[in-house]
């Protein structure tokens, strides 16, 4: 079975005032998603207006890092190497914000472990890289879900 | 009752990516426009309006075409936003120009040359931005990877099999085999499909459309004038573009709610299209479905009501989209998958040929054709053409 690795080389990340809190949190090993301070709905991607109530007041709570896998694709790191390592790019729904989706890599697992709806936990990002990485979490970590 | 009609079509030969050099995209567009004018029986200088979609093709704009062809004056020049999702909708722009009295003959033009500009690598080529950093940081940088997210979700929710995607690739190729204009004319087997390299699992190379060069022009006029022109008129029964907020940026972003996520995003367009034309799926003789990825053909069949939601897989697997014996023949020209990918405008040209009765793979007595554009980011679009 092909090895699962993080996507590399890391993509250069650009951010602005509106998206900075997401990347700052990742660099500190945490997941944060924008939430409306008025109606408390989470939203992705970050935006000035809350699409539910049009409030411009927002907050960026640090989340547990627990999530479930919504969907994914498996891509060869080097397309010319049919036996080489792959990365798994996915969309993860954070436990506290299940209606939002986070682009991520699934790591620290084998391909046959990966199934939709599997529980995930955030991997603290290595120094110098910017990417949301999740690994399989024990089901008990999902609070009985 | 019809206000406008397609009165001329023209195209260059289709080329594999980069093989159209040293022609320019404008050269090819001019060839296609000249051919469309000749087909319609009008001088090219009579064209007085232009409509476009998707600026991803690049290289053509109204001023340059007017200069190159000696077109003296235009009263309309507009493009739908987004990408290939606007392809069928650009016919609606042309209709708007005609109904509004801005133009008498409107050319809808697409010219694509991917020598330097591969659409499949469009995101990877862009510099990092605050927005694309979200997906690029996960190694998501190609339309096919977003398409794979949606295909995987459809498989998960409905039990859709890769055999269904294979059937789209295989049946579409089978049509291309007998279309002399098609780029890919060797038949495909299921073994070929499963041997095809995975590019974005669950989508393999044969689930992806071609990378092609070429140009197509579609000429529209008032319906009452069309009756006296060179070709059998092909009337615009309805042309709609737009879409709903749930789809939003669609598969180029991936933030759709679950119901919308595992779809082509086309349900609201289908509803408005059918309402405007007073028709339904049962009235359609041939469907030209935008096939940048096989999985989206399956989902469009659901969203346009040819089968229930979630049953697109079994529907195609039982042969429903086959030219021979299918209940709704799909892409008899070979589609974006096997004829050529000119961002979807080839589907409009094929719908016209089908209704004229001049197609290489003619659906018998075809009188009503559906053409779709997308899914992509907003807008999505669709078109109903009738004899």
From TrEMBL, chain A:
Superkingdom of origin organism: Bacteria
Signal peptide region: none
InterPro entries named among the record's database cross-references: ChsH2_C (IPR002878), ChsH2_Znr (IPR022002), NA-bd_OB-fold (IPR012340), Thioester_dehydratase-like (IPR052513)
Pfam (any one): OB_ChsH2_C
Ranges of residues in domain ChsH2 C-terminal OB-fold: 60-123
Start and end residues of each ChsH2 rubredoxin-like zinc ribbon domain: 23-58
PANTHER family per record: BLR3430 PROTEIN
The protein's name: Zinc ribbon domain-containing protein
Native source organism of the sequence: Novosphingobium album
UniProtKB/TrEMBL annotation, chain B:
Pfam families, per the entry: Thiolase_C_1
Source domain of life: Bacteria
UniProt cross-references to SUPFAM superfamilies, sorted A to Z: Thiolase-like
InterPro entries: Thiolase, Thiolase-like, Thiolase_C_2
Domain Thiolase C-terminal: 260-377
Classification via PANTHER family: ACETYL-COA C-ACETYLTRANSFERASE, NON-SPECIFIC LIPID-TRANSFER PROTEIN-LIKE 2
Protein name: Thiolase
Lineage, top ranks: Bacteria, Pseudomonadati, Pseudomonadota, Alphaproteobacteria, Sphingomonadales
């Amino acid at each position: 079975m092909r090895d699962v690795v993080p996507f590399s080389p890391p993509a250069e990340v650009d951010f602005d005032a509106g998206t900075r809190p997401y990347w700052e949190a990742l660099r500190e090993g945490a997941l944060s998603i924008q939430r409306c301070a008025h109606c408390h709905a989470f939203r992705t991607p970050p935006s000035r207006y809350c699409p539910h109530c049009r409030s411009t007041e927002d907050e960026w709570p640090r989340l547990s890092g627990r999530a479930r896998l919504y969907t994914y694709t498996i891509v060869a790191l080097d397309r010319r190497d049919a036996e080489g390592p792959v990365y798994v790019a996915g969309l993860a729904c954070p436990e506290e914000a299940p209606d939002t989706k986070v682009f991520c890599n699934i790591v620290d697992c084998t391909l046959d472990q990966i199934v939709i709806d599997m529980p995930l936990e955030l991997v603290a990002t290595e120094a110098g890289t910017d990417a949301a990485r999740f690994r399989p979490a024990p089901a008990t970590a999902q609070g009985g879900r | 009752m019809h206000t406008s009609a397609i009165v001329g079509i023209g195209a260059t030969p289709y080329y594999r990516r980069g093989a159209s050099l040293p022609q320019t995209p404008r050269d090819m567009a001019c060839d296609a426009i000249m051919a469309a004018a000749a087909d319609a029986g009008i001088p090219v200088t009579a064209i007085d309006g232009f409509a476009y979609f998707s600026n991803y093709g690049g290289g053509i704009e109204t001023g340059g075409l007017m200069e190159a062809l000696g077109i003296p004056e235009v009263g309309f020049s507009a493009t739908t936003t987004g990408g290939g999702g606007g392809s069928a909708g650009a016919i609606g722009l042309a209709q708007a120009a005609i109904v509004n009295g801005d133009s008498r003959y409107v050319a809808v033009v697409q010219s694509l040359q991917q020598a330097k500009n591969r659409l499949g690598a469009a995101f990877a080529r862009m510099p990092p931005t605050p927005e694309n950093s979200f997906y690029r940081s996960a190694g998501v940088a190609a339309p096919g990877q977003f398409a794979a997210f949606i295909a995987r979700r459809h498989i998960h929710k409905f039990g859709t099999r890769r055999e269904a995607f294979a059937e789209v690739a295989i049946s579409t190729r089978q049509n291309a085999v007998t279309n002399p204009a098609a780029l890919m004319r060797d038949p495909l087997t299921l073994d070929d499909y499963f041997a095809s390299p995975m590019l974005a699992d669950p989508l393999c190379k044969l689930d992806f459309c071609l990378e092609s060069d070429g140009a197509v022009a579609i000429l529209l006029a008032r319906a009452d004038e069309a009756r006296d022109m060179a070709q059998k008129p092909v009337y615009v029964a309805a042309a709609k573009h737009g879409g709903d907020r749930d789809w939003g940026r669609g598969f180029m972003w991936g933030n759709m709610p679950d119901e919308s996520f595992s779809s082509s995003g086309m349900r609201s367009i289908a509803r408005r299209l059918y309402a405007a034309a007073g028709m339904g799926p049962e009235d359609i003789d041939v469907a030209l479905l935008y096939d940048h990825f096989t999985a989206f053909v399956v989902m469009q069949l659901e969203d346009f009501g040819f089968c229930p939601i979630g049953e697109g897989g079994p529907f195609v697997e039982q042969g429903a989209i086959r030219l021979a014996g299918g209940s709704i023949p799909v892409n008899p020209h070979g589609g974006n998958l096997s004829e050529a990918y000119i961002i979807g405008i080839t589907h409009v040209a094929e719908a016209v040929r089908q209704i004229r009765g001049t197609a290489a793979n003619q659906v018998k007595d075809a009188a009503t054709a559906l053409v779709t554009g997308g899914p992509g980011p907003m807008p999505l679009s669709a078109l109903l053409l009738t004899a």
